[in-house]
């Protein structure tokens, strides 16, 4: 059944794995969705060929979504889903300052740091964050595969007095699209837990070039993950977050439920693109330094991934 509120006009900024997954699922549920891409080529291909979604059961479906390149500016809308990588956010910030004050922006980035960036250009009332554990993989400019189920949590960074109607409507539509979506009072604690999951899963899968589920196949990777978790939990405690055994179990569940997924960091390494390791493990290392908590494992992984993503040794660009 469609939600009662039908006046949402969604603009998905970024036609990568996550952007295309959400664009396809929301458009298939009947919502008005426009995709803003980096290149004119991708926008033209989407306009001509439509967007193809491969579901978890392997079936494929196609949906037509309007698309335009960022150089044409951001189209009118009342909900902007930012689905670009953390390092690609800064060039987008000037365009966000021109948005209608009634428009709401939801940032889907992993890691930490984007909250401060957005607070500089948007009013507090406009700014929302999403933490999601859905797995996605883009196969081409017009094809995306849904590789794992998860939960979409949306809300303000910290608790506010009232619920926002645009965000409430988005959560209803996401649920209608088959996504387990929750309107959270505050995202900060969830962002911390996701940070920990990404700080374990992403660099290890990128280093060993394995899917998320394979981390659980060996007692060595499990032990490494646990040591990384304990180190990160101490930094989180300094930031006021109580991290416990339940959170460790939750990370194991994410590995299982996205077992076939290639983490976003592994996908970046394979394509010789820069990764988000600075805003994930790098964030923990920096906070560790400020608080006097040693983070040797996260620091080592940070260096290893920075080296690996800068060396052109990803599978698709491996040196001969
Ligand atoms: N992939 C996954 O399973 C998950 C990813 N995430 C997080 O979601 C976020 C997005 O990840 P993901 O979709 O994997 O990343 P991708 O790299 O697949 O997609 C990012 C997209 O943003 C586009 N882009 C970059 N700059 C601009 C711009 N200025 N204007 C318009 N488009 C732009 C890129 O274009 P181009 O293709 O031309 O480079 C690319 O298509 C990340 O923070 C990631 O950590 C979270 C959970 C799961
Ligand atoms: C949940 C997970 C680990 C899914 O792969 C992810 O957030 C990512 O790949 O960045």
UniProtKB/TrEMBL annotation:
Superkingdom field: Bacteria
Keyword S-adenosyl-L-methionine among record annotations: no
Domain Ketopantoate reductase N-terminal: 10-158
GO biological process terms, semicolon-separated: pantothenate biosynthetic process
GO cellular component, one term: cytoplasm
Reaction catalysis annotation: (R)-pantoate + NADP(+) = 2-dehydropantoate + NADPH + H(+)
Pathway in which the depicted protein is active: Cofactor biosynthesis; (R)-pantothenate biosynthesis; (R)-pantoate from 3-methyl-2-oxobutanoate: step 2/2
Keyword set, alphabetical order: NADP, Oxidoreductase, Pantothenate biosynthesis
Entry EC number(s): 1.1.1.169
Residue stretches making up the Ketopantoate reductase C-terminal domain: 187-305
InterPro entries: 6-PGluconate_DH-like_C_sf (IPR008927), 6PGD_dom2 (IPR013328), ApbA (IPR003710), Ketopantoate_reductase (IPR050838), KPA_reductase (IPR013752), KPR_N (IPR013332), NAD(P)-bd_dom_sf (IPR036291)
Gene3D superfamilies named among the record's database cross-references: N-(1-d-carboxylethyl)-l-norvaline Dehydrogenase, domain 2 (1.10.1040.10), NAD(P)-binding Rossmann-like Domain (3.40.50.720)
GO molecular function, one term: 2-dehydropantoate 2-reductase activity
Known function: Catalyzes the NADPH-dependent reduction of ketopantoate into pantoic acid.
Family, as annotated: Belongs to the ketopantoate reductase family.
Record-given protein name: 2-dehydropantoate 2-reductase
Biological source species: Brevibacillus agri
